[in-house]
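Have a think about this chain, tokens included, and walk me through the fold.
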Amino acid sequence: MRTACLLGSLLVAVAVAGCSSLNPLDLIRPDTRPKMSPLPELKSTITVKTLWQASVGSSGPAIFSPMVVGEDVFAAARDGTVLRLNAANGQQHWRMNAGTQLSGGVGASTTLVAVGSSEGEVIGIDAGSGSIRWRANVSSEVLASPVVAGDLVIVRSADSRVFALDAVDGRRRWVYQRAMPALTVRSSAGLVVRENVAYVGFAGGRLAAIALTNGGLRWEAAVAQPRGSTELERVADVVGLPWVAEREVCAVAYQGRVACFDIAKGQSLWARNMSSTTGLSGDARYLFITDDRGSVHALDRTNGTSFWKQDRLTLRNLTVPYPLGRQIVSADIEGQVHFMDRESGALVGRMPTDSSGVAAPIAQLPGGILLQTRSGGLFAMSLPQ
């Protein structure tokens, strides 16, 4: 079996042991590489300030997402560093090292922090003291942030298995498994838990609702159907996190579609063709998606109709658009944070972080937002005024 590494819309097949650190663009002649849009001239109409900065450590080839829990921020780095900061001012409460190379972001509650390693180890850390409570093993590399849900830690491994571990001692409670296609997108796509159900997108374009009580399948639906004559053409994997509302759950697939389903039974509400490498988000009216060319779209939640498209940031490897009041915010490969008007998509502001770029989804702070760059910078910014 083989898997695939993804950068933008480029795929490179490698052995199942994991994606190498080779940049796929190195395989393309420099004069034929796709060129990202230059930063458009912009007169900002909003005011955004940096509240505080901190450093956790480099992410290497992985994607590390910080997590905000109440008044605390938890973050991790490739070298095993995990830290807890005050969300209001960035003051460090503790910093520890998990003793292994980590491969994804943190999951946390008020009492427990969970991280995963390149070797398939999951480490449970006491949120108050930073001491290790337990270690457990899953079947392969953990690319996505674990989810701490009550007395369970839900972990998705790179081989399409979902594990439920006991939050007290790491003991395995159940595992959900499905077959993988010959080629898949190497992705940090995780899962979302709502009311004792985990919503998970899989390779092959499937979206599943899994009961937390026993790992049983509640329903499964097709976000996209693999098509084409070659394995590469047939890659149609759900990317990013599903977006879950009160009555519907939505997801998007690479080389596939964006689709919404009834949350109770998985019946299709609507679908339309669209390809993304990052995922989607939403608010009371819209779904927001960055397509695989880097254009940002606002779609009607009820039927998928397009409201606007922002295409002045193409090929800048934008993060998932994050709705923030009257603005939509997304960061790029050069560490620039872009603010767009929620109703029109017009660019209204821009803030720099550092030049290493941002790949992880944006997190919301009380009164602001939080970004983690590839070099390990944590940047807390105020809400737009």
Notes: The chain has one domain: 2-382. The radius of gyration is 20 Å. Residues 1-32 have pLDDT under 50 and may be disordered. Residues 2-382 form a domain with the Methylamine Dehydrogenase; Chain H fold (CATH 2.130.10.10).
